[in-house]
Amino acid sequence: MQNTVANNLQRAMRGGAPGTFSLVRSFAAIQELVNEGCFDDGQVEGLPVWALIYYCLRCGDYKAAFYCVQQAGSHLVDSYSAFFEDMAGNDGQVSESVSEVLRYQYRHVVASSEDSFKKAVFCLLGGCDIKEDFPEVVQTAEDYIWFKLGQVKTMPDGHELPMDILTYNHLQSLISQEYGETHYKATEQPFLYASMLLLTSQFEEAIEFLNRTSFLRPHAVHMALALAETGLLATSVPLQAPLLSLDENEPAPSKRLNLPRLVMTYCNKFSHSNLAEAINYFYFLRDLKDADGVNLFKLCCCDLALENKAFNVMFGMLNERGDRVFGVLDEFFSSEEDTKAIIRMVAEESEKKSCLEDAIFLFELCSDHENSLRLLNSMLGQILPQENKLGSVRERMESVAMMHKQRYHGKEINCSAPTASNFNLLCRLIEFFNHWHSKDFRKALEIISEVELLPKKPSEVEHYIAVFRQLSGDIMKNIPEVMLATMNILSAEYSRLKSNRVGSPTKHHAQEDLRQYGQAITAYSASLPYDMPGDTNAKMVQLMMTMN
């Protein structure tokens, strides 16, 4: 109104005391209402009284509307002064008793009037004739929403509303279902339709609508996050639910928005290039949980880490002392344990996906040394006898094992004694096979003697079979290769001594020791309670024969 008056000052002829009535009078003068249609109950300052009352109500000034009634003359004052005085004194609230009287008068008197402004005022205040839109009076979408919201009525609990009364849910259905996108030409006027939904508190449907248009999607996401933070957004929990869904426990047309799905879909386009920004968006999901009770912020961070594998950026890394250097995720938690809980989630998922090298690193990063060493032992057990070639899995795992060993040296770790013992034994066996492959037989024999896995004399066989039964599966399955490598070393050493033509008591004693060593291992191999590879015992016998 102010803009219209300011742009038409000559026609507005604004004057008198500043205020709502002065503004409305000038605005009505510009509309040239006197030359249009029929008007009831006279004029105020040359303008139709009901038009002035309507525009005062549209400005939200109920006292100005009451002033118009008072200025209209005794007929209007006698008939309606009490209604408007009651409304002006209650900040625009119309009591149910007054509404009943207005509805009665509308049905019996006003409905037949040709004054559209008078009919509109009665329908607005009395909440009657809800199907009438008064297009000659209510000319904009914003006016329409204001008018319909004014018609909305509620009843105390236990009272049923009459069929001809507009409820808030009915108004929402009117906008989103009866009129809908087609009526408002939503594809051509997206802001108009979105504003109609927003002004009727259909936030979820407005966000879903905006999200369908690429250039409006950022606004949809940010609006959703702001509404969720203030507790004004109805959200759905199951991640598999559609973006917009109905809730059978709520009155139509109430809907729920799948906020996690909206946020995760939006973040997909930049989560690879900007982890920190994606995590900032996921942080808004911190108060939501999935069907299993898992915090969605943590779940999203877990999925992001598994997809990007940028563990050092998200979670930090271990320094030379074995302490964790913080990553991006630590900025969102007051306690380091919260970050470690997410790291553990990622580690567990990595293990389920058989990404064991990732899991080993992550378990150690969250100080879960037990699981880190458990998986490392399993990996070492799979590649133990292999030759250490450049770029091989064995080379990587040996490097990981040596770093673990260096970090754990002299420190107390969160690990059971059997797991730590298995790890140390596997590290020694790595050294054994390295020396075996490099032909350093003397050093290899020293290591195999120190770890005490194989008997040196036939009399020790029973003892070492008992030792075998105590071994972990990661070590047990490598015993056949350990025996064959040791027997090959013994055979080679025996042949070396035998080729030396110079005889001496020392030489014969050494040969006898090697022969006894070989006999003990052969007997041990034949007696083990273990399904050996098919040709292991045959190879053992052949090697033993070379020492006879």
UniProtKB/TrEMBL annotation:
Q: Name one GO molecular function term.
A: structural constituent of nuclear pore
Q: Into which family does the record put it?
A: Belongs to the nucleoporin interacting component (NIC) family.
Which organism does this record belong to? Cloeon dipterum
| Alphabetically ordered keywords of this record | Membrane, mRNA transport, Nuclear pore complex, Nucleus, Protein transport, Translocation, Transport
- Which InterPro entries does the UniProt record give? Nucleoporin_int_Nup93/Nic96
**Which domain of life, per UniProt?**
Eukaryota
Annotated protein name in UniProt: Nuclear pore protein
One GO cellular-component annotation of the UniProt record comes to: nuclear pore
Q: Which PANTHER family match?
A: NUCLEAR PORE COMPLEX PROTEIN NUP93 (PTHR11225:SF4), NUCLEAR PORE COMPLEX PROTEIN NUP93 NUCLEOPORIN NUP93 DEAD EYE PROTEIN (PTHR11225)
